[in-house]
């Protein structure tokens, strides 16, 4: 079974696709080709995962006009042509896309080569890429029930977001034990602050300003993003100048976490983060209380704000909009949640109800079903799929 997988730009699109690819290889010995963009994070992550990668010049589709918009549009025809050629050569039995602007040429290439496509929608509202691709998809899977209304009922199913096996496996580790493994105090609450794979400057700045107060009642693990690490470190050091060494040891700043990220999530008492779909799905399966600071919209609505509003409505998280994120607001929210065992328990129970721990396996099963139909169709009555 040959499977084309595509999704790129940020870790939020790539890691779910890798989870699907890994399970396809493990259970079905599938021949996987990952189609990505030449300027996305997938150029690093996919080869490191041991998968074959082909890249195209995918153009990023945006809702506003800028020089990047125009240059992105100029890349679209070339990217589509490259993708069609790659798919024609690889001749997959089925294709799976997990989002990002590279998914459009990948999906078009599958369509023009008569390859069935399972398109996955991670956020609650679809972005422009998936809106364009949806009419061509053979089947559409969504992560959250709120997404069902955006797509045709007859070909859309709610399966949840694919999760890496390491996320599921870390559930076996107690939070206190996870803190010890990360060299934190097992008995003191741990606040994890992360802006995602690319970081979030405003979130970093506010956290640094709040550190002298936060460290009086909890430990803090802050993931700044690699590009923002130096400026965040300088800011944190300045804010902690008058802080004693014992209290300073409660704080750790790292640029990026990959292999240890599941352990960091499990170790956390409370997580402050953006509200990308993959992040929310991981919080749900681990039952982690959170304060969500959704990425603000560049123009129009923000998918992350819609995601966060849904979690808040379900009492699975609290939300602070980016514009309202101030040091005193952060300190007050964190302290009110961490100091209340009832709040932590209620949020844990609510977020756990949104979990779909079997999502990866269910998506893989749907991919295999589509692939079987391709094999049978192309080999006539002699086609047998094992």
CATH topology grouping of the largest domain: Rossmann fold
> What would you say the CATH architecture of the largest domain is?
3-Layer(aba) Sandwich
Q: Which class best fits the helix and strand makeup?
A: alpha/beta
- Can you list the strand order of the major beta sheet? 3-2-1-4-5-6-7
Describe the structure.
There is one protein chain. The chain is built from 16 helices and 13 strands. Strands 3-2-1-4-5-6-7 form a seven-stranded parallel β-sheet, with helices on both faces. A six-stranded parallel β-sheet has the order 10-9-8-11-12-13, sandwiched between helices. The protein folds into two domains: 2-163 and 357-382, Rossmann fold (3-Layer(aba) Sandwich); 166-352, Glycogen Phosphorylase B (Rossmann fold, 3-Layer(aba) Sandwich). The radius of gyration is 22 Å and the shape is elongated. It is of the alpha/beta class and 386 residues long. The longest helix has 24 residues, at 67-90. The N and C termini lie close together (9 Å). It has helices at 11-28, 42-48, 67-90, 103-112, 128-133, 165-169, 175-181, 201-214, 229-239, 245-248, 261-267, 277-286, 303-313, 327-338, 341-352, 359-378, and strands at residues 2-6, 31-37, 52-56, 94-97, 117-121, 139-142, 156-158, 190-194, 219-223, 251-254, 270-273, 290-292, 318-319.
